[in-house]
Amino acid sequence: MAQSEQEILAGLADIVNEETGLDTASVEMDKSFTDDLDIDSLSMMTIVVNAEEKFGVRIPDSEVKNLKTVRDAVTFINGAQS
Amino acid sequence: MTSLRDRRGQRVVVTGLGATTPVGGTVPQTWETILAGQSGARTMDYDWVSKYELPVTFAATIKVPPGEVLTKVETRRLDPSSQYALIASREAWADAGQPEVDPERLGVVIGSGIGGVWTLLDQWDNLREKGPRRVYPLAVPMLMPNGPAAAVSLDLGARAGAHTPVSACASGAEGMGYAIEMIRTGRADIVVAGGTEAAVHPLPIAGFAAMQALSTRNDEPELASRPYDTARDGFVLGEGSALIVLESEEHAKARGARIYAELASVGMSSDAHHITAPEPEGAGASRAMVAAVERADLDLRDIIHINAHATSTPVGDIAEYNAIKRAFGDLTENLTVTATKSMTGHLLGAAGALEAVFTILSIYHRTVPATINLDNQDPQIPLNVVTGEHQTLPDGDIAALNNSFGFGGHNVALAFRSI
Does B133 reach chain A within 8 Å, measured CB to CB? Predict the structure, then answer.
């Protein structure tokens, strides 16, 4: 069942916190994973795989490079769920 | 700065100590516990002990879990072997007074016998059960044996070199030997050196048990590690890390550092005898001890204390005695010997480093901790072993050896002297 963007954002923030220790509140829609949150490519892959499991979606490797901001990820997951 | 040539005779001194062990989360806690003669061996309450029907159900497990000391992200992204090393290095660095040093003249040497066995096999499980996509992207840097040295060098910003000697149970002592060379050859002013091990895992336990190296005294874990005792039946697996801050004497004195002792030299040899059994006459181990004494410009009669390797295996303890006797002859009577593995268990690649810390503290405090569980001393091992109460060492200039031997026939002896 599809979740709201706010639910996905909250879930994603938990995953980011678990992997990087960043405060969940810092994971905001307009933040860039690399430039604002300082998440490297290895951590990004872990976040993607954990998000796949949490949200029941598949995020192809080729898609990961397009997920530049938190909003990009939330929008992709939201679309993949529906 | 002195020239490279001038450094050749440079004395290397110990200015900081750090450890997390089966008997304490810090060096002071660890030292206090072993002076009190308390064992760190305990029954393991992990579900995998019964799941795999392991023949040995106890070990000297870490006293303070790393999760109580490190951040959640550090424990997630580092193998336990690296976690222990990071804890020990931070304590050692603080103990040394957080010295100011050019990062390009700060080195790290951390030996490990087995490496990231938990990560390797956890991720193997992930691969088989969930597929390649579920293998953690940090799996390789976590499982590599040089992971702990790399993690500590990152934490300290150490850029003179980060190295990992691997020589089974001699790894930690070999790390300290390598550090001496780094300082004496002019590569570094300070080196954080020692060993780490996190192998209380069902596979190494099953493997050591299969070769009948482990004590099976499952009902009495605290009595299981009993070096030199006639009833000894194998070693007790331990885990943890011990690291020391080594520094050129010139650098240490210039910053007014507290100096615990001098790490005067290392002697090394290899048996080329058998992959696991020690050479029974102790020829190789004896050569390592004599080399350490000679390289330190000491005489055999200057050595008054040995912190022995003494793992509590039937053949190993005798072989080490034979080696000591071969090296010291009649001077063996002058030696005050202790076997601290009776309390800490055997930390494999961290063992030599932890026992180096004990040797340093024995010199610094003039106190040798007693060996516990020595009820009936093996008549084939007539050493002066400290039992009951810890023993006081004399004032004045003193020197001591710390022995470490590893599967593969690796022999390492470190010589320490008072300052």
Answer: yes
Contacts of A59 in chain B (CB under 8 A): none
B135 touches chain A (CB under 8 A): no
Cβ <8 Å between A45 and B137: yes
Q: Count CB neighbours of A40 within 10 A.
A: 11
CATH number for B318:
3.40.47.10
**ipTM of the complex, rounded to two decimals:** 0.83
Say if CB B36 and CB B222 are below 8 A apart.
no
Segment B49-68 mean pLDDT:
98
To the nearest whole angstrom, how far is the Cα of B309 from the nearest Cα of chain A? 41
The residues of B that are catalytic are 169, 309, 346
Please determine, for residue B197, whether its predicted confidence score (pLDDT) is greater than 80. yes
Identify which of B73, B134, B138 has the shortest CB distance to residue A21. B73
Print the domain residue range for B24: 4-254
In a domain? residue B259: no
Minimum CA–CA partner of B71 in chain A? A21
* B72 near A CB under 8 A: yes
- pLDDT tens digits, B310-363: 999 999 999 999 999 999 999 999 999 999 999 999 999 999 999 999 999 999
CATH number, span A5-81: 1.10.1200.10
Is residue B198 within 8 A of residue B81, CB to CB? The reply is: yes
Residue that is last in its domain, among B254, B274, B295:
B254
How confident is the model over B185-211, as a mean pLDDT? 97
> Quick check: pTM over 0.90?
yes
**Cα(B214)–Cα(B314) distance, rounded to whole angstroms?**
11
Q: Is B130 on the interface with A (CB under 8 A)?
A: no
Long-range contact set of residues A21-24: C-beta below 8 Å, sequence gap at least 24:
A21/B71, A21/B72, A21/B73
Asked whether B193 and B109 are in contact (CB, 8 A), the reply is yes
B209 with B354, same domain: the answer is no
Same domain, B277 and B311: yes
Residues B206 and B278 in one domain: no
The count of CB pairs under 8 A between chains A and B is 17
